[in-house]
Amino acid sequence: MGIALLLLCAYLIGSLPFGVIIGRAWRGVDVRKYGSGNIGFSNVLRVLGPGPASVVFIGDLLKGYAPVAAGHMLLVKWGTPELDLWLLALGLAPIVGHSFSVFLGFSGGRAVTTTCGVLLALAWPAAVIGLTIWIALVAATRYISVGSMVAAVSVPTYMAVSGKRWEWLAFWSAVALLVVLRHIPNIKRLLAGTEAKIGQRVEVGKDAAASDA
User: Is 209 helix (H, G, I), strand (E, B) or coil?
Assistant: First the structure.
């Protein structure tokens, strides 16, 4: 019962749509109606600017990190058998929550920032490597979507190279696949040459293509 409650709480915390909350509180704007229509950091950046986007980034990061870090301590305290498997399930919960939020009719964002928060709680070196790759690629290409997808793929690569158990490799491979699949609209825009670059703003009231974290 305790583990089930932890998983439910992690999912509900992950479901908190900070992009929608901050957009409405900051300027009375529903970010789902502009840009890419997604709720993550980069669409908020284009629609509302760096201030609101920074708040959303921190919120999405913490909703991945906090429930997993707290749950990890409780699982260890309870002497939970098969700890690795339960930790991975706990990590999956906020990622699924962000991607399929109960508060948004089971729709959501691409979960890149929330996944980074989960990584910080479970395997911080992989998070640092992924973030470094993301920064380097975004700086080189100015496409947030490119950095996000490659950073996601770098995580199972790290798990394989570092000799993690097969469960970790399988789990993070599945998460990377989820992130890439959620970026299919971005891939189509990249191939068409219409993907927006970082720094481009969306004028509220007009539709524009944009990528989302």
Answer: coil
Q: Are 5 and 34 in contact (CB under 8 A)?
A: no
The two three-digit tokens of residue 63, written as one number: 């909703």
User: CA 77 to CA 6: how far, in whole Å?
Assistant: 13
Instruction: Give me the amino acid identity at 194.
Output: T
Quickly state the pLDDT bin for 210 (edges 50, 70, 90): very low
Q: Which helix (H) or strand (E) holds 105?
A: none
Q: Which residue has the tokens 């906090």?
A: 66
pLDDT digits (tens, 9 = 90+) for 33-76: 998 888 999 899 989 999 999 999 999 999 999 999 999 999 99
Angle among Cα 71, 73, 77 to the nearest 5 degrees reads: 115
DSSP character for 107?
A: B
Distance of alpha carbon 39 from alpha carbon 213, whole angstroms: 8
Query: Distance between CA 47 and CA 36 in Å, rounded?
Result: 10
Residue 1 has what pLDDT? 75
pTM above 0.70, yes or no: yes
Of 114, 90, 93, nearest in space to 38 by CA: 114
Token digits of residue 14: 């992950």
